[in-house]
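Reopening this one. Same input as before:
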Amino acid sequence: MDSRIQPFAEKMRKTYESMEEDFKTVRAGRANPAVLSRVRVEYYGSEVPVSQVGNITVLEARILQIAPWEPSMVKAIIKAINMSDIGINPTTDGKVIRLIFPELTEERRKELSKEVKKKGEAAKVAIRNIRRDADKAFKKLKDEISEDELADLQDDLQKETDKKIKEIDKAIEAKTKEVMTV
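Same output, byte for byte:
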C-alpha cells in the first residue's frame, strides 16, 4: 500500500474497531461483561471502570456477577449501574452483585437491531469522510504528482474504502443475527 494512503487506512481501521467496541455494548439477551465497559464507578475520588474495582464473571448464560475487591464498593457499583443506560437492575447479597439479563422480547430485539444498523451506518459515514479528506489531500499534491499517479492513489483509496465498508456490512449482519437469535 502506498505510504500516502497508509494514514487514512489506519484511520479507517480505527473507525471499524470503534464500531466493534460499540457493538459489544449492545446486549443480546446473554450475559456479556463488555456491557459494563462504559459503566464508571467513583473510587477514591476518581471515576474508574467497574472492571477495575472487582471481578466480573458470567455465572450462567444470562447472569453476570460482580465481586468487588472491597465490600464497601458494593453500593457505589450498584449506584453506577443504576445510573448507566444498560437497563438492568442489580441485586446483591451484600458481598456480590448479580445482573440478571431478562429474555428479550421480539420488539426489543428489533429495536436493538435498528440500533446496530444505526451504529454501522455512522461508521460507514465516518469511513466516507476519511476518504473525502484523503481525496482533498491528494488533490493538493496535484503539482507534485502526475495525473496518472493521482488517479492510482484515488483508485487505491477507493478500494480500501470499499473493503472497510464490506467489513462493516458483515459486522452489522453478524451482530443483527446475534441480536435476533432467540
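So the earlier flakiness isn't reproducible anymore. For the record, The mean pLDDT is 88.
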